[in-house]
C-alpha cells in the first residue's frame, strides 16, 4: 500500500496547484529518483488507476528517471511542472 499513499500525495499536490491556475490541465512532469521504491511503469499504472473517473483521468505523465543514487532527491518523486491548455477568449 506504499504506492497508494505516494499516489494520493501526488494527486493532492497536483489538484492543489492546478486549482490556482487558469486553463485545462493536460500534463504533469515528474522526476523519479532511483531509490524511490517504484518504477516509472508502476507509478504510471497506479496513477492511471487512481485517476480513472476523476477530473485528472487522461492526464499525460512525463516521467524523467534520475539514475544517480547519490543525488539528493534519489528517494523522491518530484512534481517538476504542470502543463495547461489555455483557450483565447475573443
Secondary structure: elements and pairs:
Elements: H1 2-19, E1 24-33, H2 40-51, E2 60-66, E3 77-85
Parallel strand pairs: 1-2
Antiparallel strand pairs: 1-3
Helix pairs in contact: 1-2
- Globular, elongated, flat, extended or rod-shaped: what is the shape? globular
H-E string = HEHEE
Helix content: 25-40%
Structural class: alpha+beta
Rg measurement, Å = 14 Å
**What is the total tally of β strands?**
3
Sum up the structure in keywords.
single chain, 33% helix, three-stranded mixed sheet, 2 helices, 29% strand, 90 residues, alpha+beta
Describe the protein's architecture and organization:
- This protein is α+β, with helices and mostly antiparallel strands.
- Helix content is 33%, strand content 29%.
- The chain contains two helices and three strands.
- A three-stranded mixed beta sheet has the order 2-1-3, with helices on one face.
- The protein starts with a helix and ends in a 5-residue tail after the last strand.
Give a concise summary.
33% of the residues lie in helices and 29% in strands. It is of the alpha+beta class and 90 residues long. Helix 1 crosses helix 2 (40-51).
Amino acid at each position: 500500500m506504499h504506492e497508494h499513499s505516494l499516489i494520493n500525495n501526488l494527486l493532492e499536490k497536483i489538484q492543489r496547484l492546478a486549482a490556482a491556475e487558469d486553463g485545462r490541465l493536460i500534463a504533469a512532469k515528474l522526476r523519479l529518483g532511483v531509490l524511490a521504491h517504484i518504477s516509472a511503469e508502476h507509478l504510471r499504472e497506479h496513477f492511471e488507476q487512481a485517476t480513472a473517473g476523476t477530473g485528472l483521468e487522461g492526464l499525460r505523465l512525463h516521467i524523467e528517471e534520475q539514475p544517480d543514487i547519490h543525488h539528493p532527491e534519489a528517494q523522491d518523486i518530484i512534481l517538476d511542472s504542470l502543463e495547461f491548455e489555455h483557450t483565447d477568449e475573443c
